[in-house]
Amino acid sequence: MKKKGYGFHAGGNGTKKNLQFVGVNGGYETTSSEDSSCEESDSDTETEGRAGDVEPEQAGRENKGASSGQKSEDDDDGDGDDAGQEESAGAAPCSEHQAHRCKPSEDFLAACQLLSEHLPEIRSTSNKHLQPVLASISQEWFQVSSHKCSSPEVVAEYLEVLGDIQPQLLEAVVNLPDRNGNTALHYSVSHSNFPVAKLLLDTGMCCLDLQNRAGYTAVMLTPLAVPETRQDMEVVMRLLKEGDVNLRAAQGGQTALMLGVSHDRDDMVRALLCCQADVNLQDEEGSTALMLACRQGNADMVRLLLAQPGCRVTLTDKGGNSALSLAHGDIAALLRAHVELSPSLAV
After folding, report:
1. CA-to-CA distance for 99 and 138, rounded, in angstroms?
2. Rounded distance, CA 241 to CA 176, Å?
3. I want to staple 208 with a disulfide (CB 3.0 to 4.6 A). Which of 108, 236, 243, 328 is the partner?
């Protein structure tokens, strides 16, 4: 079905690879249940409790393994996996799941129609009668839009239907959070499903700076995603330009730039810097992106950051450490040379 006025055009480039993120409790999650098919993920507890715990590693302060704190239920499947590790690109397609959910169900349509008549009440405190309606919409919407193998064609169909009922309804559903505060955009970015991310952005109604329960926006997750084509990278740049790249996470105060540096993603770090990422922002412990690069001994990343106008080498964290005090060997020499050439930045 093709409606006028909303410009949703489905398209895709096959099964996407997916990084493994850690959950709100700090442990690494696996996505093994999604490797085989989406039929296994048809419950909203799977959708909201698994990929819903989208939160990057506390970069620069934890080893790339399981946290010593609480773990999510799925940590036993692979706690020690690197956060930059990709899953196999050969995951089985979700054809049966997609065939089952090619179009909105009658229950979904009825719930949407009812919700469209009560949209002002969503934000009120006395909307208990809307909770079953929202739950019904949420379950089907996240099943369709928020898996690694979510079909752009199917998502486009849902967006068309929602916009046809009421534009305000489309806006509400596109930005609908699950119980962990993640929207469909959080999921599509974390799964590197950029065709779906583009469809969501094309609505013109995505709130890119919505933070999930851990305080991460979809934009902040972008540095950990895996763009595989030029079209994917165009979506990445659009996310970074339209969202706030300098927001800090509620837990730890990390920025997108810090996450990119911590995971040695020079491609994403370059993209962030092109989109005005602030190289001197500090997290809750006072660490900067430059300090993280020095801790990791990544000389190329250090050079990239030092090349940014105004990069301050002598900022200190709460422990009194500067990038220079954390650096060794060639990296320390790079920093000293930078200070000598730019003495004004040594304050």
Report:
1. 19
2. 22
3. 243
Distance CA 332, CA 190 (A): 35
User: What is the rounded CA–CA span in Å between residue 1 and residue 160?
Assistant: 8
Question: How do residues 111-165 score in pLDDT, each as one tens digit?
Answer: 999 999 988 877 654 567 788 999 999 999 999 999 999 999 999 999 999 999 9
Full-model pTM: 0.76
Looking from the CA of 43 toward its CB, the CA atoms found within 13 Å total 6
| Burial of 292 from C-beta contacts in 10 A (0-12 / 13-18 / 19+) | buried
Q: Is residue 31 in a domain?
A: no
The residues near 228 (Cβ < 8 Å, ≥ 6 apart) are 13, 16, 17, 192
CATH of the domain at 338: 1.25.40.20
Q: Which domain holds residue 310?
A: 245-347
Contact (CB, 8 A) for 209 and 239: no
Taking only the tens place, the pLDDT of each residue in 77-124 is 333 333 332 332 223 344 444 434 689 999 999 999 999 998 887 765
Residue 174 parent element (H or E): helix 167-174
Is residue 341 situated within a structural domain?
A: yes
Residue 346 inside a domain? The answer is: yes
All residues at 6 or more sequence positions from 181 whose CB lies less than 8 Å from its CB, including other chains: 210, 211, 212, 213, 214
